Amino acid sequence: MKILTTNQMRQVEQDCAKVGLPAEVLMENAGKAVAEEVRRILGAIDNQHTLFLIGPGNNGGDGLVAARYLHDWGAKVNLCLFSQRTPDDPNFKLVQERGIACIEVTQDEALDRLNELLPSANVVIDALFGTGKSRPLRGIFLPALSRVNRAKKRQPHLRIIALDLPSGLNADTGAVDPACLYADNTITLGFPKPGLFNSPGAKRVGKITVADIGIPASLAEQVTKELINEQHVKLLLPQRPLEANKGSFGRVLVVAGSINYIGAAYLACSGALRVGAGLVTLATVTSLQPILASKLTEVTYLPLPQSHPGIVSPAAAKLIHQELDHYNVLLLGCGLGQNQSAIKFIKSTIFRLKPASLPLVLDADALNTLAQTPNWWQQLTDNAILTPHPGEMARLVGLSVNEVQSDRVGIARRTALEWHKTIVLKGAYTVVAAPDGQSRVSPVANPGLASAGTGDVLAGAIAGLLAQGLSLFDAATCGVFLHGEAGEMVKARLGDAGMIATDLLPALPLIIKQLKENQT
């Protein structure tokens, strides 16, 4: 599913008119789709007190249509109009014909009536401004939104739903006006917008749903930015033929672990196995191999020489190079540490690969080593996936973490183009960017995944999928999606506090199973 900027969305809507979908049809479709999603979110809609904040433009028009449908389905609807609708507005006429209660909030004194409605409301629907509003919020909107915000603090059960995006959030950048509400849900119309996934706006959108309003997907086929979804990943998943053997599903060489980060090796290897890799070999120092063998009974081992107890020796690089012909992918970096011996080993391993050698997945300490190496991308094969978290990306590009977070898609895309590498920028709404300019965004923002070791699981999953024959971009895409959905499955069972990386491992094959069995 494509992610469209404001200008791209405007162009698509103009193109819709040319193919027989005028603005009034799209508005009707949008309002109905929003009402259906609100009904799904709330469950039983009968007698639910629903308060709409109706703005002056098309977003307000979509809200009027949604209000009409919810009223017809049995909800108790009140409308707060923040500007007078024109006498010939057909959607406002239909609202008036139904006797839906409307108050005009154009003067400060009308705010008292808003205050009276808020305590009894189950849900507030923000239909003030859509993608077209990029200027600061002013006038009556500021005290009105402030009152809604205060009501939410007093009434935690009050649900706030944004129509298209929370008013005051820039659809393209994610910048927010201070008055912008913290929505529980955002129902975005037609296509998602980039600002929904960028900080600080991403913190205010809640759970995102994309409402189909009838726009043909072909009108956006030239857009290179996409939201990763289930249908796409189902098509990418590797086939599992009945006559297969372990060699059919690829061989992964994982170079990981050190005395302080033994678990990273376990998690990375397990991630590769749990997405279906046929064989995984762990290359780790000799002193750690017995410890890991007690937990990783399904992998084979390549013991490496060590310079200090639990620290890999630079001489181990030669051994790795001798073994590469037996594998389909090399995963390197998880838990290797930043000891000078480890850094020398990493450089000797990755910078001496032949240009046509097997694909690489680089994580953690491999990335920290790159950040200390001038023009590293010129020394490294293009056949590589880098999986930085925001802190690692900040070090790689020489920016602050806040700067990275404020333009996640843009930075991932620019670095993939400049470095000729596939980039996985981890975090809420993980971004996957390819050297050809394509980018994909995960729909998942799960604080439960913000714990030690979950990145090692992701790196292993990507390597395991890469070994099964997927392209770098597709392996990264599938790995990110499966990892995110595994996190959502664990969150549904345990909550988002106390989730640990090993919880994800048994969930990964279950997510694959669900995808294959879901025929929708």
Low-confidence region ranges = none
**Sheet with the most strands?**
10 strands, mixed
Distance between the termini: 16 Å
Q: Tell me what the CATH architecture of the largest domain is.
A: 3-Layer(aba) Sandwich
Number of domains: 2
Order of strands across the widest beta sheet? 8-19-18-17-16-15-14-9-10-11
From the 3D structure, determine the CATH topology of the largest domain: UDP-N-acetylmuramoyl-L-alanine:D-glutamate ligase
> What spatial form do the alpha-carbon principal axes imply?
elongated
CATH superfamily of the largest domain: Ribokinase
Percent helix range: 40-55%
| Top CATH class of the largest domain | Alpha Beta
Helices and strands: which structural class? alpha/beta
The radius of gyration computed from the alpha-carbon positions, rounded to a whole number of angstroms, is 26 Å
Count of individual helical segments:
18
Give me the count of strands. Answer: 19
Rounded mean pLDDT score: 95
